[in-house]
Every structure is written in C-alpha cells, then in structure tokens.
Prior knowledge:
The protein is built from one helix and three strands, in the order βββα. The chain has 60 residues and is mostly beta strands. A three-stranded antiparallel beta sheet has the order 1-2-3, with no helix packed on it. It has one domain. Strand 2 (26-37) and strand 3 (43-48) form a beta hairpin. The chain is elongated. Helices cover 12% and strands 52% of the residues.
Amino acid sequence: MVLSSLPGEEAQVDFGYIGTLKIGNTTKKAWIFVMSLSYSRYMYAENVFNQSVKNIYRMS
Length: 60
C-alpha cells in the first residue's frame, strides 16, 4: 500500500533506546528522537535524555 501526503501535512515520530552515556561523573540513560517528514522523507534525529513532550517542544 502506498501512502501519500501533502507537504507539511504529516510527520512520524519515534524514540529508540541507545544505552547509557557518561556525562561528567554521571551516567544517564539516552534515547534517540527521530522525526521523519512523510512527504519529503527528510529525517531529523537528536540524542535526548527523556521522552517527555516538554523535551520535544524544546527542540523546535
């Protein structure tokens, strides 16, 4: 099945666990945030330390 969308109409978002990262003397769990635009297939990815909505809006 082929899905189509107009530019700016839709994006797909997901998180993937990537392990732990040592920052200074602290070890934190880390995830990768990935957003793919449906029309252009452009992908944006960023390491994050939580999956809260507040964290996502900070990236904009």
